[in-house]
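Good morning,

Attaching, inline, the backbone tokens for the sequence recovery test we're adding to the shared suite. The designed sequence is right after.
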């Protein structure tokens, strides 16, 4: 019976109480007697726990599941079972953000061993535009990964081009609207741009200006 009363109480204000009692086949007087009855100590404790759990969940930026929230409650000397915490979170719709796997931004090319190291591990330059280097990284967001590609001039150490994209699956050998550094300056003296960690041959994107 209390399940029906709770359902009516939840929808009170959206539908007439008289109609809901008729639909649920309960008396109107019985519902009001249940609603006006003082709350039990168990119900009051559950309300207090719910409020505390919501605060901990919000302070964790919605990353704590019921186990970590239970541990936090234990540290604060609040005695409650894990199962109770789990049920309260489920009833309140508190779902922790799930960890995502690490994004893979560097993939060796099939012909990697045969590619020349044009920079020779020398990242110095005597003039602007002689050597460009860059890399691709990922930025975790609530909606997934955002991929950022940047290009830096070895002489000035300034970023001369950049772009971002939701996916890094597309690769190109030239700057283009689809992917790769946007609005790169054209310099006939620039002979190589290599991207990737460790060795310039580990590349996701290679650009050579004419």
């Amino acid at each position: 019976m209390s399940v029906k009363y709770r359902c009516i109480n939840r929808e009170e204000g959206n539908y007439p109480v008289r109609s809901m009692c008729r639909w649920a086949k309960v008396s109107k007087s019985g519902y009001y007697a249940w609603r006006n009855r003082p709350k039990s100590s168990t119900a009051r404790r559950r309300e207090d726990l719910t409020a505390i759990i919501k605060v901990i969940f919000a302070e964790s930026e919605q990353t704590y599941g019921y186990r970590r929230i239970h541990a936090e409650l234990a540290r604060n000397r609040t005695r409650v079972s894990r199962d109770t915490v789990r049920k309260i979170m489920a009833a309140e719709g508190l779902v922790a953000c799930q960890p995502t796997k690490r994004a893979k931004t560097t993939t060796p090319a099939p012909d990697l061993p045969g590619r020349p190291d044009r920079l020779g591990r020398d990242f110095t330059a005597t003039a602007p535009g002689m050597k460009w280097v860059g890399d691709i990284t990922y930025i975790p967001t609530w909606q997934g990964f955002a991929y950022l590609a940047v290009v830096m001039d070895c002489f000035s150490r300034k970023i001369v081009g950049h772009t971002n994209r939701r996916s890094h699956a597309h690769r190109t050998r030239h700057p283009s609207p689809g992917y790769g550094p946007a609005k790169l300056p054209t310099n006939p003296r620039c002979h190589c741009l290599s991207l990737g960690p460790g060795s310039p041959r580990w590349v996701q994107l290679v650009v050579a200006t004419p």
